[in-house]
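As a warm-up, study this chain.
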Amino acid sequence: MGERKESNHLIRDHWILCSDMEFINKAHKGKVVVGMSGGVDSSVAAYLLKEEGFEVTGVTMQIWQNEERYDCSLEGGCCGMSAVEDARRVAHMLDIPYYVMNFREEFNDKVICYFISEYLSGRTPNPCIACNRYVKWESLLKRSLAIGTDYIATGHYARIERLNNGRYAIRNSVTAAKDQTYALYNLTQEQLKHTVMPVGDYTKEEIRGIAEKIGLYVANKPDSMEICFVPDNDYAGFIERHCDGGIQEGNFVDKDGKVLGRHKGITHYTVGQRKGLGLAMGHPVFVTEIRPDTNEVVIGDNEQILKKIVICDNINYMAEQEIDENKIYTAKIRYNHRGAACHLKRNDDKLYVEFEEPVRAATPGQALVVYAGEYVAMGGTIIDSM
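Now compare it with the structure written out below.
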């Protein structure tokens, strides 16, 4: 494997560097359950950990529901049915035990029901963040520890380190193009303590190269981009099919309540949306607010979705246990946001994030993740902006 990379604390702490630059094993690494999606990242994660000396078991999490109700992805989804066969074949090649664990109930309660409820409440949820915290970690870790496992592992592009202050933190992966730290901000200290993420030390090209070198047939398998339980990306259609009473049409209004037209139902819209509104206003307009109580979608111009202060609740502290009001942090308001400089203030159970420059379309229901350098400092759920 060449020279070993040193960012993952749970691997690094069990090795010493000899004079000839070779790493030797100091101790048995322990038992690890690898969540295997059938994709190249988790497959290579299992291989790397086995090479490190861990006792590896592969697990695919069965989360798809009754097929008459939920059309889960058959091809390429992170937990779709095809994942089982792909993961099983990889596990056989790596000569590791492999199991399928049923997490249907947890996934339905913590992800699908949450997803539907948030959209009906006028917010835009991130189901992958909920799945990470409550299914892929909370439920899988609980079961894994119960059967004598020391750690769980995933193929996420992120790194875990224990900092000088004693806290565990997610650190950016070596590749910004695939970095997945945003979706992991909500993990707890106990979860991080029992987690390894070997893939965060590599670029995607390197991971595919390793897979090709050891002959994994999933080496060039495409990445899954859609939400696994909404493979056609029709969120509103999914919600309407699984919502008693369906979705009601309502009014587009301006900030003063003037009716501008009719909308198809609030689940079709998100703050910042411009396309698909069907309004002939003579100039670009955007969704600036969703009002579920009155079933209204508020329309305005670009300036109305530029905000300097974003307010969050449900704060999860990671690298830091409290904020430093004199410190300049970086925060991301969505997964593909590049991040922007900001200052933090705490008021009761809410976090006020003041950006140095206005940010566009801070969307209620989405996560805001705060970074201190390369580390996730904390994060929360956006509830308002101004």
